[in-house]
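User: Here's a structure from my thesis project, written as C-alpha cells. My advisor, Dr. K., wants to see whether a designed sequence matches the one we expressed. Can you design one independently, without my sequence as a hint?
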C-alpha cells in the first residue's frame, strides 16, 4: 500500500470513528473529505499509518494481542510526534496526552489502529 493509500485509510478510519463516537455534531474539520484535507494533515496521516504498519509487521502479528487502549495510545503518540513535526507551537488539543483526550477520540484512535491492522493482515 502506498503512503497516499495509507493516509486515505487513516483518514477514512478517523472520519468513521468520529461519526460513530463523537457526541453530537462533530466540527466540520473533523469530517472533512480527503480531497479537502490540508496537505500537512495528509502527510501526518500517511506517516502515522506507516508507523502503525511497521509496528504490526515488526511484531509478526503479535501486536494483535494489545488491548484497545494500547492500540489507541500508540496512534495518539505517533500523531503527537507528527504535530510537533508540522507545527512549531501546536495547539494544545493536537498534543494532548492520552489521559486528557476525550473518550470519543480514544475510541477513534483505537479504531484507526484496528483498521490498519485489518488492512495489513
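Assistant: Designed independently from the structure alone:
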Amino acid at each position: 500500500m502506498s503512503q497516499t493509500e495509507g493516509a486515505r485509510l487513516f483518514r477514512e478510519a478517523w472520519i468513521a470513528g468520529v461519526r460513530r463516537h463523537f457526541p453530537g455534531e462533530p466540527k466540520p474539520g473533523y469530517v472533512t473529505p480527503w480531497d479537502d484535507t490540508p496537505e500537512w494533515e495528509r502527510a501526518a496521516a500517511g506517516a502515522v499509518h506507516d508507523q502503525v504498519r511497521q509496528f504490526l509487521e515488526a511484531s509478526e502479528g503479535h501486536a494483535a494481542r494489545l488491548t484497545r487502549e494500547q492500540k489507541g495510545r500508540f496512534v495518539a503518540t505517533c500523531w503527537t510526534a507528527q504535530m510537533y513535526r508540522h507545527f512549531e507551537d501546536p495547539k494544545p488539543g493536537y498534543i494532548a496526552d492520552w489521559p486528557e483526550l476525550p473518550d470519543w477520540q480514544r475510541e477513534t484512535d483505537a479504531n484507526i489502529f484496528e483498521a490498519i491492522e485489518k488492512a495489513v493482515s
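When you compare it with your expressed construct, this may help: The chain has one domain: 3-120.
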